[in-house]
Amino acid sequence: MKSLVRKNILKVTPYKAGKPIEETKRELGLKEVIKLASNENPLGTSPKALAAIRKAVTGVNRYPDSQGFYLKRKLAEKLSLSPENIVLGNGSDELIDVIIKTFVENDEEVLTADITFLEYEIISRVNGRSVATVPLKDFRFDLPEMKKKITGKTKLVFIANPNNPTGTYVSKKELVGFLKDLPGHVLVVLDEAYDTFIDVPDFPRGTDFLKNNNVLVMRTFSKAYGLAGLRIGYAVGAPVLTSYMECVRQPFNVNLLAQAAAMAALDDDDFLRKTRKMVLEEKQYLSDALRRLKVSYVPSVANFILVDTAQSGVEVFQAMLKEGVIVRDMQQYGLNRYIRVTIGTRRENEKFVKAFKKVLKK
Ligand code: PMP
């Protein structure tokens, strides 16, 4: 009975994930399908992480370390922070939930951009919190406008840096300007899911802004580290913030295999270097191909590109599926002409370009 459901849940539109490869093969009777829809790592997973998973798998009769002791210690070393600065999560998705539950009271508000990672709004609403949004300007977070929108009720500001689905970023100067004289009741979350792909000098690393005690940074192992299927991410902040997040998260939120894999992945510099090189080179390849096709796109510092198809993005998405290429339509974001394409390997990108040419001609 619908009347049993909490009122704010009735208003939630569920998150629509990228279409899985197996489902597409099954539904369309295709043998070969590539997925460029969820910003995953097309090179797979670090061989060191795979070996660590194999080794750890015989231990799954035991609960995982609820404190994530070794992983936090390793991350802390890498980031020149202390383990108390770190909270581990079942992907950064879970951390968004933990952050909202820890910091936003019933009558307080979450502030973000109108076109950004949808989970900020969905999880806020599931928790019964209201959300205010500020339109992007030229596909970028408009921090001066967002600052003007801050009221006595604003508690949390989500900034995806780089932004998903646009691939744009806020610069160091813009972030410093935003944080300067920010009211003391506001906490800023910098979501750096794509930080490993950055190749611009004026990108602000969130970890440089922790001393203000009003900034949290989120990162994930789902993208460059190739561990999306295991679900692991982390948040960093001042212990006065993270210690309360520790009270809110589930005791065994990060599973045993994910902890082992993440530890090993952090040691695999070679895999990370290869991934970064591939993404940067292939982004150039895809951008060049799009320019040749006279298709406009938003320049991206992440591992995906937002592409203006100049027609219905949903129809392009469906036509691309028939060609065995899964991209992401942007209808949920209100970008009806657009698709988002994850940077793949050269072979995948060639397949994308070939299929896209064919679909555009129809
Ligand atoms: N933040 C952003 C900006 C993202 O794009 C994503 C992944 N789509 C996430 C967070 C969630 O990542 P995770 O797999 O760690 O939950």
Description:
There is one protein chain. By secondary structure, this protein is an alpha/beta fold. The chain is 38% helix and 15% strand. It has 13 helices and 13 strands. It has a 7-stranded mixed sheet with strand order 2-8-7-6-5-3-4, with helices on both faces. The protein has a 4-stranded antiparallel sheet with strand order 9-10-13-12. A two-stranded parallel ribbon has the order 1-11. Strand 5, helix 8 (172-179) and strand 6 form a beta-alpha-beta unit. Helix 4 packs parallel to helix 10 (256-266), helix 5 (91-103) crosses helix 6 (119-126) and helix 5 (91-103) crosses helix 9 (239-248). The longest helix is centred in the last third of the chain and has 24 residues, at 269-292. It is globular and about 55 Å long. The site of 4'-deoxy-4'-aminopyridoxal-5'-phosphate (PMP) has 13 residues, from helix 5.
Descriptive keywords:
alpha/beta; 7-stranded mixed β-sheet; binds 4'-deoxy-4'-aminopyridoxal-5'-phosphate; 38% helix; 362 residues; 4-stranded antiparallel β-sheet
